[in-house]
């Protein structure tokens, strides 16, 4: 089989992840091209672009590449995605399953092996049986709400699950920043940093005006 073509993505991306992206999507969208170098270098990033511009993959692709290269472990919670909308959390979980299946097949077709990555969502509607399962065997990627994050931070089992977070993705930040709900989320992020140590933050927004005013609420004191 001929070697797959690779677009101009960050050099740190796993070559097969870059090749899969080229075959599946072609060129990066403007927000992806602008954000990926900063995300790959470990910077905190605010990505603001209209709906349908690929913001979700903007936030997740570097992490998927790191799973592929082994710099993020497939066991334990590494990536925490927080959105104020329960339905969006479940949509993101489902939308990640396709790329994960495709990456696994692509790696196999090119003589590689992509790790099995578990993705789960948690909200007030999540059955107790699923919550217990997450506590005993945490997913690699968890999609949740600000309120559920606060609940996790208040329980011993939740603290154990959250202690390994390396990337926090905050979606729809314009919907909560500058509100009481946003302030509570900022406090939860601060508590999470005390628990897990410093981690990368990637914020996503469909509008930038309010985000520019209030994004500092979600930054660490040292950034």
- Structural class assignment: alpha/beta
Q: Assembly state here?
A: single chain
Count the DSSP helices.
Answer: 9
| Amino-to-carboxy terminus distance | 46 Å
Sum up the overall morphology in one term.
globular
Please outline the major beta sheet: 6 strands, parallel
Helical percent range?
40-55%
For the biggest β-sheet, the strand order reads 1-6-5-2-4-3
Radius of gyration: 17 Å
Q: Which residues form runs of ≥5 with pLDDT under 50?
A: 209-223
Output the helix-strand order: HHEHEHEHEHHEHEH
Report the strand count. 6
Percent range for β-strand residues:
5-15%
Mean pLDDT: 88
Structure description:
By secondary structure, the protein is an alpha/beta fold. The protein contains nine helices and six strands. It has helices at 15-25, 30-40, 55-69, 86-109, 128-136, 146-153, 156-162, 180-196, 209-214; strands at residues 45-48, 79-82, 119-122, 141-144, 167-170, 200-205. A six-stranded parallel β-sheet has the order 1-6-5-2-4-3. Mean pLDDT is 88; it is low at 209-223.
SSE layout and pairing:
Elements lengths: L14 H11 L4 H11 L4 E4 L6 H15 L9 E4 L3 H24 L9 E4 L5 H9 L4 E4 L1 H8 L2 H7 L4 E4 L9 H17 L3 E6 L3 H6 L9
Parallel strand pairs: 1-6, 2-4, 2-5, 3-4, 5-6
Helix pairs in contact: 2-3, 6-8
Supply the key terms.
globular; 223 residues; alpha/beta; single chain; 6-stranded parallel beta sheet; 6 strands; disordered C terminus; 9 helices
Summarize, please.
The chain has helices spanning 15-25, 30-40, 55-69, 86-109, 128-136, 146-153, 156-162, 180-196, 209-214, and strands at 45-48, 79-82, 119-122, 141-144, 167-170, 200-205.
